[in-house]
Amino acid sequence: MEEAVDASAALDPKLAPLLLFGGHGDATFLYSVPKRALLAPMPTPTRVGDGGVDDMMRGHRWWTTAQGWLLMARRGSPCTFLWDPFTGRRVRLPPDHDGTVLTAEGSHRRRCLLSCCGPMDPTSCTVLVIDLADPELWYCRPGDNHWVKLHQQPYQYRNPAHRDAIIRFLRKFTAIDGKFYTELHTGNVGVLEFSPEVAEGN
């Protein structure tokens, strides 16, 4: 599950916390809050070279998590993994063979949540990817063989207002202690919890 640590693809911990800007246009920027400094901009992907942080960001599409890990999808490959930019640690995730989870065309519409503080324990960490424009989400655990898709059938949201409400609920998801929570239109809190068993087909 955990891949070898690549120290060259690691940031100085003294720079944390960092704000990560980009994903649209031609550059990615890191801003160090304690240093009050903008780190060198990283141009759009062109090549992968020495394996440093710049190359890691250039060679992958990425999504942030509240825990500091980045969900990474290698450009031109189905490979996905979690990456800690401060230690260089990687945690293998299932490949996105059909290109639907982290597809380049819809990548700006995705959000990633982790159900726990760190993804090292596959029995307690679920990686959740939410589509912010369609009522769909995907999940997996480190070590699984495939992503599992959950979605509303089109007949379940023929009314555009119902579909929009579902998308609003998905956008509000947050994670704590192994569960995902969202505020419902009734004022109640909805809870999404995945069983600890490995997903079917593994």
Short description:
This protein has 202 residues and is mainly beta. Helices cover 9% and strands 32% of the residues.
Strand coverage percent? 25-35%
List segments where confidence is low: pLDDT < 50 over at least 5 consecutive residues.
42-50, 198-202
Mean of all residue-level pLDDT scores: 75
What strand line-up does the widest sheet have? 1-9-8-7-6
- Rounded radius of gyration (Å): 17 Å
Distance between the termini: 14 Å
Q: Which structural category fits the helices and strands?
A: mainly beta
**Helix-strand topology string:** EEEEEHEEEEEEEEHEEE
Instruction: Tell me, briefly, the overall form.
Output: globular
Task: Give the beta-strand count.
Answer: 16
Describe the biggest sheet?
5 strands, antiparallel
Quaternary structure classification: single chain
Total helical elements = 2
Helix content: under 10%
Describe the structure.
The chain is mainly beta and 202 residues long. The protein has a domain at 60-192. It has 2 helices and 16 strands. The strands form 4 sheets. A 5-stranded antiparallel β-sheet has the order 1-9-8-7-6. A hairpin with a 4-residue loop joins strand 11 (127-131) and strand 12. It is globular, with a radius of gyration of 17 Å. The model is unreliable at 42-50 and 198-202 (pLDDT under 50).
